[in-house]
């Protein structure tokens, strides 16, 4: 003890400071560890008399709750004791960093528990606590380094002077933070952790009825056809052959989304210097109206994510130096490949693609000129046509004539059964088709079914297939002859259906059809589903549907898009980008006016994502303007101070 005391007296100041911090941090950490471990065991195993905890079947959730309780202890202890010499007023930067560091620490702590339960199949008290001990040790080291170098600092600097190797390390950390190169990688870590978490929640992916059809095609269980985009089934087939896992498609979706959000968050950080806004950019991926479809393998989701990727690519292209000619053409080709995929995966995405393509070209060349416009447009057309031909040759899809559902819907909802029979006779339709259409019109009216007559009203089991080549030609002739004559009824029907798309919240959450074992391919029939995580996500999304329903309604995002497109000038450098983003959303929504088969939130998923990103960019621009004004006012005041003080003050005499 005497030797320890003597060493502490003669030790350098930096060593005594480090030792004091380690001791205080250790005490606070030990207390937080006790709180965390005790609460975790109480939640999992309960008291001896209870026979089990309230979260006994949800160890990962119990780990998260225990870590949140320990965070409170850690905040109070470290701020008001360990780093009390650096303590100032609580500011947003400090809180944001503290929460961010602890969220990463929470993931580090929970990861061994997940591996122990889900991958190794362990579930004993010993294995649970051993896993928590490993995670806690790694998270403790992470927190100490981050608290000392990032969170609890005075005016953005570490006051502890440490010579030698430690001095060089802390100086490098401060210099790195000052240049802003450390935070983007912190954002990358948060984005990677979020992508992993989302992939775990949705594993092996949420499969709608459409998804299951395309999965069977990708697995080779059924031939490919063009009812659903063959490019998506072909991509899925390639991923399955490359990775051996059907979950690769859901993982790819998460990678595209979170990579795009990370690049956008990095750009926001560079433009604003705000850690909070950059984290808010990443939080877009966890917003209820975005995360609800993140793991659903759907063509609408694919289209939305690739359009978001091209938009972010355009924002990054604006920052290129003027001499990077070759890089600009490479980015054009990459962006066009994404746009071509959007068109092939969702046929009615073409109107939405046009403004995004214009945005990309103007970002690459602010004044492109006629020749560049022609070349860029030619590249888009050539790549789209070439990709379509390549997909058709590789997949050889069976033609389904799905588009005929639209005239079928219009005929049975606009015309009366008698009018349908007369029109069918004039068009030379098969008598069985005539009777089937008339019966479908009666069924739709009797049961008040507003759309999707092919599935809900037309008796395909007893009537001929309306999508056969001859019947499609007959229905097309009937439609072209009758709709101009009944244009008022046609307009009323289409506006009514479009109004339901805008003002109803149908299917805001899709958790797949895993409850129907008879429809599941063998590749996913035996895949365990994490029902606890699925239920948590469902309650989260549906809670927002109940409390904030407009986030899931088309009218709101159409209104946001109109404001974006029609406002002449926005604060900040992205007026053109915001207007074109709004135009893309408007065109996509309006494209459903003549073809909407039903009301479904996935039809406005792209406008919802685009509107959310646009609002964040607008907020970022206002933050930059406010900070610029504040900095200008401070500089002006400092410049005017020597000239505006009284002469008595300048001479040292009392006024």
- Globally, the shape reads globular
Number of strands: 0
Q: What profile does the largest beta sheet have?
A: none
Terminal CA distance reads 61 Å
Q: What string gives the helices and strands in order? A: HHHHHHHHHHHHHHHHHHHHHHHHHHHH
How big a fraction of the residues is strand? under 5%
Uncertain segments are 1-8, 155-180, 514-518, 643-655
Query: Which class of secondary structure composition applies to the elements?
Result: mainly alpha
Overall residue-averaged pLDDT value: 80
Radius of gyration: 31 Å
Q: How many helical elements? A: 28
Helix content: over 70%
Describe the structure.
This protein is mostly helical and 655 residues long. Helix content is 72%, strand content 0%. The protein has 28 helices and no strands. The protein has helices at residues 2-10, 13-45, 59-82, 92-119, 125-151, 164-179, 182-202, 209-219, 230-243, 248-272, 275-283, 288-291, 299-317, 325-345, 350-364, 369-395, 405-414, 417-426, 431-447, 453-456, 469-482, 487-503, 522-525, 531-547, 554-566, 575-590, 605-644, 647-651. The N and C termini lie far apart (61 Å). Residues 1-8, 155-180, 514-518 and 643-655 have low confidence and may be disordered.
């Amino acid at each position: 003890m005497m030797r320890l005391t003597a060493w502490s007296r003669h030790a350098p100041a930096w060593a005594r400071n480090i030792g004091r911090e380690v001791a205080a941090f250790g005490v606070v950490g030990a207390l937080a560890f006790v709180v965390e471990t005790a609460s975790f065991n109480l939640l999992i195993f309960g008291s001896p008399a209870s026979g089990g905890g309230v979260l006994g079947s949800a160890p990962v959730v119990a780990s998260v709750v225990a870590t949140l309780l320990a965070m409170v202890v850690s905040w109070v202890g470290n701020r008001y004791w360990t780093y009390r010499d650096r303590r100032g007023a609580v500011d947003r930067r400090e809180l944001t960093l503290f929460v961010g560091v602890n969220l990463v620490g929470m993931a580090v702590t929970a990861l061994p528990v997940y591996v122990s339960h889900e991958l190794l199949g362990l579930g004993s008290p010993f294995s649970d606590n051993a896993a928590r001990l490993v995670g806690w040790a790694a998270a403790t080291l992470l927190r100490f380094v981050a608290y000392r170098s990032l969170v609890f600092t005075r005016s953005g600097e570490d006051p502890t002077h440490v010579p030698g190797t430690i001095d060089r390390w802390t100086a490098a950390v401060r210099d790195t933070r000052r240049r802003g190169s450390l935070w983007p990688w912190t954002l990358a870590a948060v984005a990677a952790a979020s992508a992993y978490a989302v992939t775990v929640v949705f594993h092996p992916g949420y499969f709608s009825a459409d998804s299951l059809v395309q999965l069977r095609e990708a697995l080779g269980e059924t031939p490919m056809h063009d009812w659903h985009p063959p490019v998506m089934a072909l991509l899925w087939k390639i991923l399955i052959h490359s990775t051996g896992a059907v979950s690769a498609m859901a993982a790819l979706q998460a990678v595209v989304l979170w990579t795009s959000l990370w690049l956008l968050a990095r750009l926001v950080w560079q433009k604003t210097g705000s850690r909070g806004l950059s984290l808010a950019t990443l939080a877009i991926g966890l917003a209820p109206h975005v995360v609800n479809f993140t793991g659903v393998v759907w063509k609408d989701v694919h289209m939305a994510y690739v359009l978001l990727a091209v938009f972010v690519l355009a924002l990054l292209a604006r920052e290129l130096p003027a001499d990077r000619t070759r890089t600009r053409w490479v980015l054009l080709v990459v962006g066009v490949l994404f746009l071509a995929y959007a068109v092939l995966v969702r046929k009615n995405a073409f109107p939405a693609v046009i403004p995004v393509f214009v945005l990309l070209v103007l970002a690459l060349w602010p004044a492109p000129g006629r020749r560049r416009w022609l070349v860029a447009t030619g590249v888009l057309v050539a790549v789209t046509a070439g990709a379509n031909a390549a997909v058709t040759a590789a997949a050889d899809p069976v033609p389904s004539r799905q588009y005929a559902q639209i005239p079928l819907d219009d005929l049975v909802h606009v015309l009366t059964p008698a009018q349908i029979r007369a029109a069918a006779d004039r068009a030379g339709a098969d008598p069985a088709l005539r009777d089937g259409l008339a019966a479908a019109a009666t069924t739709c009216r009797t049961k008040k079914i507003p759309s999707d007559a092919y599935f809900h009203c037309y008796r395909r089991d007893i009537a001929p297939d309306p999508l056969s080549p001859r019947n499609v030609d007959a229905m097309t002739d009937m439609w072209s002859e009758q709709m101009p004559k009944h244009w008022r009824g046609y307009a009323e029907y289409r506006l009514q259906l479009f109004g339901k798309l805008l003002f109803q919240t149908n299917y805001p959450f899709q958790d797949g059809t895993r409850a129907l074992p008879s429809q599941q391919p063998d590749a996913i029939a035996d895949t365990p589903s994490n029902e606890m995580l699925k239920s948590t996500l469902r309650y989260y999304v549906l809670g927002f549907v109940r409390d904030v329903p407009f986030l899931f309604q088309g009218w709101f995002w159409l209104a946001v898009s109109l404001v974006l497109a029609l406002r002449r000038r926005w604060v900040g450098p992205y007026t053109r980008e915001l207007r074109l983003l709004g135009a893309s959303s408007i065109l996509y929504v309006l494209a459903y006016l003549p073809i909407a088969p039903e009301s479904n939130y996935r039809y406005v998923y792209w406008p919802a994502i685009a509107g959310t990103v646009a609002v964040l960019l607008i907020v970022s621009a206002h933050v930059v303007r406010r900070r610029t004004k504040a900095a200008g006012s401070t500089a002006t005041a400092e410049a005017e101070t020597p000239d505006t003080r009284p002469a008595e003050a300048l001479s040292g005499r009392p006024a």
